[in-house]
Amino acid sequence: MSRLCRFLIIFIAVYAAAGCFSPIGSIGGSDTVDLLWVVPNRLEYKAGEIFLPGRDLEVFALSDGVVKAVHLSQVEIGIADATLSDDLKNVLYDSGCVLEPAGKKLIVVKYGGASTSYYIEVLDSDGNVNNTKPGINIEWDLGENEPGNKPR
After folding, report:
1. Exposed e or buried b for every residue in 55-86, given b needs 16+ CB within 10 A?
2. In tens digits, what is the pLDDT along the chain, a chain of 152 residues?
3. Quick one: which of 55, 51, 56, 41 has its CA closest to 122?
4. At CA 50, angle to CA 45 and CA 51, rounded to 5?
5. For the chain, which domains are there?
6. Taking the model in full, what pTM does it have?
7. Which parts of the chain fold into alpha helices (H)?
8. 93 to each of 11, 70, 75, 128, 140, how far by Cα in Å?
């Protein structure tokens, strides 16, 4: 092999090792997300507690056949009352959001052009939803207006 050929091979190898050639294909997929899902760590809170995404949920994405965990700093997180899903309040992954009032809340997570959502339940200070007491409420009709019944 001539000296010029060896020089060209070494030059091309060094040039490629330095990252000057773009790779063929890619490892880790593209920027588009085929599927996005959230694994919530909590679904019930008491009013006044803080929803902290860094502690309360994990996000995963499927892109080009590769599943990866997504760091929460890369996603957009919103929260709203279940009845007002259009009025999402942005939540920072490291500062959280105080959950008030009691009721069902919608959590929306967006990443790479995909989004997913789930619901959490915020209980009042007594552990009830929307100030309703647990169990069955029974109202007795004593028939006070019927003949023969006397009011107590």
Report:
1. ebbebbbebeeeeeebebeebebbbbeeeeee
2. 667 656 656 666 655 555 544 444 334 445 678 899 999 999 999 999 999 999 999 999 998 889 999 999 999 999 998 876 568 888 988 888 999 889 999 999 999 889 999 999 999 877 665 555 444 444 555 555 555 555 55
3. 51
4. 75
5. 31-123 (2.60.40.1930)
6. 0.62
7. 3-17, 53-56
8. 47, 12, 8, 27, 50
